[in-house]
Design a protein that fits this description.
The chain has eight helices and 15 strands. It is of the alpha+beta class. Strands 8, 9, 10, 11, 12, 13, 14 and 15 form an eight-stranded mixed sheet that branches. Strands 4-5-6-7 form a four-stranded antiparallel sheet. Strands 1-2-3 form a three-stranded antiparallel sheet. The longest helix is centred in the N-terminal third of the chain and has 30 residues. It is elongated and about 85 Å long. 12% of the residues are buried.
Length: 299
């Protein structure tokens, strides 16, 4: 009897499980879409996506980065020690002459000197850039004007107001000295043009100390062929000036110095920096399509 009950219980369990399976299958067909579902592509495996449990724990000693060595501080040069001797602007060309600790330097636009980049050139001012900051220096003439103006403002109501030095007097005095220069020139009998000249060293030193007088007497511009510097063209020579006595004429193109063809400012700078030791120099001039030489001696 007991065996019959066990068989009956087993049979009922099998029937119940079968009915339950049919019901589940029917319900799934009702909820699932009629068409098939595409299998999503498997994400490619990248080694960098995997990690170990040990990666979650960082060794503090290993994580500490070595302290960077302190960088050697770059020397900052004070622009107050520089003197702006001269500015030159012509078309796309611009350069300046500065005096740094007694030495003259010719700097072109965008040239870097002791960490300062020349970014702007004006008639009486040069602007340099360094570490995102701008630094300006002005010619001594402008400084004198500003200083004189301040002095006038301070002494406006004082008796000694008339004693303030006018910088214009200094400029006039320099112009007078330039006219009094003693230059001896020799004239070629065939061309009736100056072929050689002798200049006093003290006169050269005068122009070194008063470079603004150079451009008051003569104006030059770069002469280029296919964008390459080939010399300097004379745009203007003041009548009776020392430069006219040296044989230079309007329209001349200075193409060589001591036989070396001019191709860069560095050639001119080399002579300018060593002018105190200069004893002689030869300039090759292109005039009316023909080249001629002018010899100079320094006494």
């Amino acid at each position: 009897m007991a065996r019959s009950n066990k068989s009956s219980f087993y049979l009922k369990t099998v029937v119940f499980a079968s009915v339950l399976g049919i019901l589940l299958t029917s319900s799934l067909k009702y909820f699932l879409p009629a068409s098939g579902v595409e299998k999503s592509p498997e994400k490619p495996f990248h080694p960098q996506d995997s990690f170990k449990i040990g990666d979650l724990f960082v060794d503090v000693k290993k994580a500490e980065k070595p302290k960077p060595k302190p960088k050697k501080k770059e020397k900052i040069y004070d622009l107050k020690k520089w003197r702006l001797q001269l500015t030159y602007i012509s078309g796309y060309t611009a350069y300046v002459i500065i005096q740094d600790v007694g030495k003259n330097e010719i700097l072109q636009m965008n040239e870097v000197y002791k960490g300062y980049e020349l970014v702007e050139v004006h008639e009486t001012e040069a602007v340099f850039s360094r570490d995102g900051k701008l630094y300006s220096i002005k010619t001594d003439t402008i400084k004198s004007l500003e200083k004189a103006q301040k002095a006038r403002d301070k002494s406006k109501n004082k008796k000694d107001a008339d004693e303030v030095v006018d910088p214009a007097d200094t400029i006039l005095e320099a112009e007078k000295l330039s006219k009094d220069m003693n230059i001896t020139a020799e004239i070629d009998p065939d061309s009736e043009e100056i072929s050689s000249a002798t200049v006093k060293r003290k006169d050269l030193q005068f122009f070194m100390k008063n470079p603004s007088q150079i451009w008051n007497n003569i104006k030059l511009r770069d002469y280029r062929e296919d964008r390459q510097l080939k010399g300097f063209k004379v745009l203007y020579v003041k009548k009776g000036s020392p430069f006219e006595q040296l044989g230079l004429q309007k329209g001349d193109i200075i193409v060589a110095i001591d036989g070396d063809r001019i191709t860069s400012y560095s050639q001119v700078q080399r002579y300018y920096k060593n002018i105190d030791r200069l004893r002689s120099m030869n300039l090759t001039i292109s005039r009316n399509g023909e080249e001629k030489d002018i010899d100079y001696e320094v006494e």
